[in-house]
Amino acid sequence: MKEIHVPSETGKSMFFLFFIIFLSCCNLSFSELSSNQTSTMIELSRFLNVSDWNLPGSERNPCLWKGVLCSRPDNGSVISLSLSRFDLTNSSFLPLVCQIQTLESLDVSSNSLSSVPDGFMTNCETLVGLKQLNFSMNQVSSFPRFRNFSKLEVLDFSYNRLSGNIGDYGFDGLVQLKSLNLNFNNLSGSVPTNLAKRVETLEVSYNSLSGSIPEGIEDYQELKLIDLSNNQLNGSIPSSLGKLSKLESLLLSNNHLSGSIPESLPNIQTLRRFAANRNRFTGEIPSKITRHLVSLDLSYNSLTGLIPSELLSQANLVSVDLSFNQLDGWIPQSISPSLVRLRLGSNKLTGSLPSASFKSLRNLTYLEMDNNSLIGTIPSELASCSNLTLLNLATNQFTGILSHAIGNLSTTLQVIKLQQNKLTGEIPDDIRQLSNLLILNISRNSLSGSIPPSISQLANLSNMNLQGNDLSGAIPDKIRDLNSLIELQLGENKLSGRIPVMPPKLQISLNLSYNLFGGPIPTTLSQLERLEVLDLSNNKFSGEIPDFLTGLISLTQLILSNNQLTGKVPSFIRNVSISVSGNPGITEDDEVLIQRMPSQKSKLIVVVKYVAIGVCSLVAVIITVIVLKLSRRFKGVNNMQVDHDEEGSTVLPEVIRGKLLTSNASHKSNINFTKAVEAVAHPEHALFQTIFWSYYRVVMPSGSSYLIKKLNTRDRLFQQASSVQLELELEMLGKLHHANVMVPLAYVLYSEGCLLFYDYAHTRTLYDVLHNNPSDVVDWTSRYSIAVGIAQGICYLHGSKSSGRDPILLPDLSSKKIMLKSLTEPLVGDIELFKVIDHSKSNSSLSAVAGTIGYIPPEYAYTMRVTMAGNVYSFGVILLELLTGRPAVCEGRELAKWVQSHPSQPEQLNSILDIRVSKTSTVATKQMLRALSVALACINISPGARPKMKNVLRMLTRL
Ligand SMILES: *[C@@H]1O[C@H](CO)[C@@H](O)[C@H](O)[C@H]1NC(C)=O
Ligand SMILES: *[C@@H]1O[C@H](CO)[C@@H](O)[C@H](O)[C@H]1NC(C)=O
Ligand SMILES: *[C@@H]1O[C@H](CO)[C@@H](O)[C@H](O)[C@H]1NC(C)=O
Ligand SMILES: *[C@@H]1O[C@H](CO)[C@@H](O)[C@H](O)[C@H]1NC(C)=O
């Protein structure tokens, strides 16, 4: 039933023959490396055991080895050696490298070296030609002393584990040094001033440097790039910096710098990029600041006064970000046509938009002026911005008719945010022309008329928010054509009539609350198998609550309050929070959220029911469809073309590759890959499902149980093409080891997807323990160790600056992703998600992967990127769950917003805490209040103001 197309044997051997001929030609056409260097290289190859180097016959010419570069044209000597990503763990080979007298460049980046041997420092300092040394992305913890190395120009120790005071580091021998990169280490002390005066680039970002920027920096007249961002520098920028006449980039982001921006900076004629965002700068912006700049970022400071009138008009300006300051006055009239990105949001700007200047902004791509006090109409000249992708004018006082505002906007637009203004009129039919639109938010205006059917032509739309207007009439039937829509907010309007079939992929929310809908709850809602929140409250729905709602497998929240429903609330086998208050005909205690525990009995009843109505056959059809779909998705695996035969749904899929990741031998004898693939062929046996995974318990022939996660590849965001890449990533994850991280033990790639294996012991989630067990209150001590454990796990995943790997981010961090080994030992789960998502695609529909509502940081809406700061936010929400005992979304409101809306006096905050826990002791209350302030810091609306995870951990452990 399966055909595998691989090159035929003859084809392969022909190719091989040509390859050999090609190699020998190369050998003939160049002269040889000196025997001295050849023997050094061969010795090195024995040391390193690189498979590419040890091919039979290759010893004849090391110049052809991967990573080796020889002098041209004679190939007489090795001049450059790149051993990047060679899996090196032992640095004892390094002194040998120094025997290559002609070496000019050595790159050992991206390995796991933990030291630089003395032998290297003494042997290599005599290499007269050595100009470049790259040790970045290793685990070196001790900076070697450079006594001589008098020709070295470029030194890169970024992404290592260097610590201690940078002032104690010896740079004295590096008299020719031009470039020093120590980014992403753990250095303390102040900005070094003991470098060679000819230094051109100085990079020490992401360390813990403190103190102020030294006045003496003006002695480094050759400096072109200074990157001091992400440290703890304080004081003000010395105005002598303005004397650095060759400076091109000055990056000071994310420090504690204060004072005003020096007037001398615009004097630097070469300065193109200036970033001083996320500091504590005050005062006014110097009038000529952008005179030579291409990019200016002063966001998240406390700058005041007007935006200087010529700031935006400079000819080369491409990007300006002044958002989150306290700037007032009008937006300058003259704007440079070169601008690509302009962000002025969250200031105190007034007046109307400089309409005339929009006419020429052909390159403008991102325009954000939200959260100001701008007035007047949205200028029709915006139509000339033919490259506009994001338009955010939300939360201002704009007036006028919506159709005039968006009638002619560029079809390149992907995000439109005009919510919270005073726009009137109807939603124009023309909106269909915005065919690239992903996010449309025009909520909380005064729009009237009905929703135009043409809106259904926005094929890429993922989020639509029309809430809080005066829209009337029926929802157009064609709305079901919105095949990418995952969120539909239509609440607080005057919509009425029949509810049409809804878009099939709705996930985040379907909100029809506060409208004029009536009649029975439509059965077509039963098709929304991904829907998490359904809000039909405050309408006139009548009849019984239909049973099919229990079959919505992704539902977490069902809000039916204030309708005219009757009868009983059906039994949900999964945990769904249900709100039915204000329905006089409902027989059940209302008011409270009804939390349902899975019980064997109700499961049985439901199963019987299902059988009775013959759903079995339906399930079989669905499985067949899914199987066929998946097989198509994964056909790229190992270049095999897997053709399923038509009635092949009973034939078991073939294991392409199963691999043990753990070194624990007991798993090796227990895990049976074929057995696992067999077991997950029955989706109805899943313990539970999330949007990305199905979870199974599989008992192996040996009797031991494993928790198996099966990737639900129904989303196009998953990496489909590169199984090799996926395997590499999984193997990397398998190497992780931390008591609070749930690391896969093994994986299987098979024709229908991918399975991951875990210890079965951990199947209770934090969510279950906190919110599904009202009688069994977890005490503060346990909650505290859970919080600390999760923080430790996330810290580990984010990696210290020097863990030598990229940080592992958690796109979907929530209390449902925290598994509990015991009441004090949490495990951070779902760490694979970031690796299996196809990031090239996640750009356009990140909202589909940005996790669970309630935990999604606000900035994801516009940055569309999963970040560490975003993870900190989600952790903050989990901490709030532990402190308040409330779920992340509670009564239709996000917990984070609810907490933020409380006044910050102690007695008010006290009332937020889970009283069942806080009342037990005053010590507990005190600690909880301190933990609450940590949580509040984590959910800070501005990502830069949130503490890093390691600081969160530090704060928590000091409670
Ligand atoms: C070969 O290398 C040794 C030491 O490694 C050195 O003493 C000798 O002079 C070299 N010979 C040539 C021809 O470079
Ligand atoms: C070199 O690597 C091969 C496999 O890549 C391994 O079999 C062999 O034992 C290694 N040799 C040494 C000396 O480490
Ligand atoms: C707009 O962008 C294009 C392409 O990057 C560039 O060539 C052009 O010079 C820009 N226009 C202006 C006015 O800067
Ligand atoms: C913007 O759009 C115009 C066409 O209107 C195009 O010529 C120009 O290159 C675009 N600029 C960028 C930066 O893409």
Automatic annotation (TrEMBL):
Subcellular location: Cell membrane; Membrane
Keyword Glycoprotein: yes
InterPro entries from the UniProt entry: Kinase-like_dom_sf, Leu-rich_rpt, Leu-rich_rpt_typical-subtyp, LRR_dom_sf, Prot_kinase_dom, Ser-Thr/Tyr_kinase_cat_dom
Signal peptide bounds: 1-31
Membrane topology: Single-pass type I membrane protein
Keyword Signal listed: yes
Ranges of residues in domain Protein kinase: 677-959
GO molecular function, one term: protein kinase activity
Broad class of the protein's primary localization: membrane
Alphabetical list of PROSITE patterns matching this protein: LRR, PROKAR_LIPOPROTEIN, PROTEIN_KINASE_DOM
Keywords of this entry: ATP-binding, Cell membrane, Glycoprotein, Leucine-rich repeat, Membrane, Nucleotide-binding, Receptor, Repeat, Signal, Transferase, Transmembrane, Transmembrane helix
A single Gene Ontology CC term: plasma membrane
Transmembrane segments: 604-628
UniProt record similarity statement: Belongs to the RLP family.
Protein name per UniProt: Protein kinase domain-containing protein
Species assigned in the record: Eutrema salsugineum (Saltwater cress)
Top-level taxonomy: Eukaryota, Viridiplantae, Streptophyta, Embryophyta, Tracheophyta
